[in-house]
Amino acid sequence: MRLKELPLTERPRERLMEYGASSLANDELISILLDTGKKGKNVKELSLEILRYCGSITNLQNITKEQLLSIDGIGIAKALKLLSAIELGKRIFIKLEEEKKIRIRHSSDIYHYVKYWFVGSHQECFYCLYLNNRNEVIERKLLFMGTINRSLVHPREVFKNAYLCSASSIICVHNHPSGDVRPSREDIRLTEALVKIGDLNAIPVIDHVIVGEESYYSFCDEKMLSR
Q1: The overall pTM is greater than 0.85
Q2: Could you give the C-alpha distances from 117 to 109, 175, 183, in angstroms and in order?
Q3: For 59, which of 100, 155, 164, 185 is 20 to 30 Å away at the CA?
Q4: Are 131 and 170 in contact, with CB atoms under 8 Å apart?
Q5: Which fold has domain 107-218?
Q6: Which top CATH class is 3-99?
């Protein structure tokens, strides 16, 4: 049956207008994105074929352009439209996750929050977490990327961002790709400098965490934040 031959109450666009997007099935939402089918295959049938190819709606997030183009009836325009919609959904989800306030109570909270940022990284990455007066993360910044054994970090950038987001305190985080989380001499010198500047500016550095593959080192836990 052609889509136009379906009763109005069963056509995706009409159902969307009448009942809202949340009332539509997965294939109906895909049908609206695709807009048209092909000769001998209406848009709902094409949408169901995409879902069958993926196996489940969650697998749709990983579908590639080449996989979409392998489905009879999907050309480049339809493939790009679907990929754009999927990417938009991912970005909305990520933004919503980032907007959830993360409260830091212990160094383990920091580690569990950041540990996946460094997966597969072969060079040091230096982040700052900026906190409000309730120890909630209000901003995170990747400030520097260095070689496998050295990061060139300038305190000016650390505190400039703290002022821009009105932070009450700062947590520094970086990784050791070697897996050895013991601080280097440079790590210790940098931390001492940041702590002193933070105290002078009333924006204290409350921890510096070094992340390895399966462990971490906390300057705060080890009482290495000299004041």
Answers
A1: no
A2: 14, 9, 19
A3: 100
A4: yes
A5: Cytidine Deaminase; domain 2 (3.40.140)
A6: mainly alpha
